[in-house]
Design a protein that fits this description.
- The chain has a 4-stranded parallel β-sheet with strand order 1-9-8-7. The protein has a 3-stranded parallel β-sheet with strand order 2-5-6, with no helix packed on it.
- It is built from 10 helices and 9 strands.
- The protein has helices at 2-28, 46-49, 90-96, 121-134, 156-164, 180-183, 222-234, 263-271, 274-283, 300-314; strands spanning 62-65, 100-105, 110-113, 116-120, 140-146, 188-193, 212-214, 245-249, 292-295.
- With 318 residues, it is of the alpha/beta class.
- The chain is globular, with a radius of gyration of 19 Å.
């Protein structure tokens, strides 16, 4: 019992120290960077407002959501706080400016997060198609993966193609150098990551796991995650020379050995430091490597931070 209490005290001290480290960094460093003052006039159509004929796919800093379809997961006030990473529906996330969705599925095509399941992936597809119908020039990266510990849903590629086929941008590495207008009317880059089924191949309507990479660090320590994100990003090729998307996630996650297990208070330890991260990328000379930037509980300022840097790239200022 005594050792357990001692360990918990050490964990709380580490968290407090790391929160202070980020706070001090924020206080001592500028959060300005090229495009930091830009605010999109219409977040629902922010790609259209940046001129699809000028906006290249490899210039975009894509605002993404982590565990995107968890707004209704579990039971309210009981299990939901332990698994919910977004409070908005998929449609409302897209309207707010999200352009990368992280969807995890289980055998019966229901969305899940670990052992908890929520609505069918049908609801995700419906929201995506509703958004596409209401816009003309917005490109979405839809990542769908089979959750750890589950088998792939049967005939899932067939299901996706039947429902999204007219919008799918086929797997082709030339896409990275194209403008948004060159891809239209196709609108969705669908990255399908099965656990046991064969990976999609070149020319397929779907992109494979090699085209969307990250270096996930499972920690609830905010400074540790911030520094790890910076380290791994700095090791990547610049966006204009690589043929895959690379994601940085501005999140920390609850740990079983810590008494705070609800997602929101834990992820709030790093949530407000997205602009600081971008500014530090500039200071450390790796802002040309930043591409997908994801978060829990996405908000307007996070979207604006990403769109602002994208705007600066289009204008040749970053």
């Amino acid at each position: 019992m005594g050792s357990h209490v001692s360990k918990q005290m050490e964990r709380r001290k580490a968290i407090s120290t790391e929160k202070k480290t980020l706070c001090n960094l924020q206080g001592s460093c500028s959060e300005t960077y090229p495009g930091a003052d830009y605010r999109p006039p219409d977040r629902k159509n922010w790609m259209a407002n940046l001129n699809p004929e000028k906006l290249h796919i490899n210039q975009i800093v894509w605002p993404g959501t982590h565990d995107s379809a968890t707004n209704k997961i579990g039971f309210p006030f009981i299990t939901r706080p332990f698994a919910q990473c977004q409070s908005l529906s998929i449609y409302n996330q897209l309207v707010r400016g999200t352009r990368v969705l992280d969807i995890r599925v289980q055998e019966d095509r229901r969305v899940c997060h670990g052992i908890l399941a929520t609505y069918s992936v049908d609801a995700v597809i419906k929201d995506v198609k509703k958004f596409l119908a209401e816009t003309q020039s917005e490109i979405i990266i839809l990542e769908i993966r089979t959750e750890f510990g589950h088998d792939d849903p049967p005939e899932f590629e067939k299901y996706l193609e039947e429902n999204l086929g007219e919008f799918l941008i086929h797997q082709d590495e030339h896409v990275f150098n194209k403008t948004v207008s060159e891809l239209l009317p196709k609108r969705v880059i669908c990255v399908w990551k099965p656990r046991k089924s064969p990976q999609p191949k070149a020319g397929s309507p779907f992109w494979n796991s090699g085209h969307l990479k990250d270096n996930w660090i499972d920690t609830d320590l905010p400074s540790t995650k911030f520094e790890s994100n910076m380290k791994h990003l700095s090791e990547q090729p610049p966006v204009n020379s690589r043929k895959f998307f690379y994601r940085v996630e501005n999140t920390v996650t609850p740990q079983a050995d810590n008494p705070v297990l609800c997602v929101k208070p834990v992820t709030n330890r790093i949530h407000g430091y997205a602009r600081l991260f971008i500014a530090q990328c500039v200071a450390k000379g790796c802002v040309d490597k930043l591409q997908i930037f994801s978060t829990d509980f996405i908000d307007e300022d996070f979207v604006d931070a990403c769109v602002g840097l994208t705007h600066a790239r289009v204008e040749g200022k970053a």
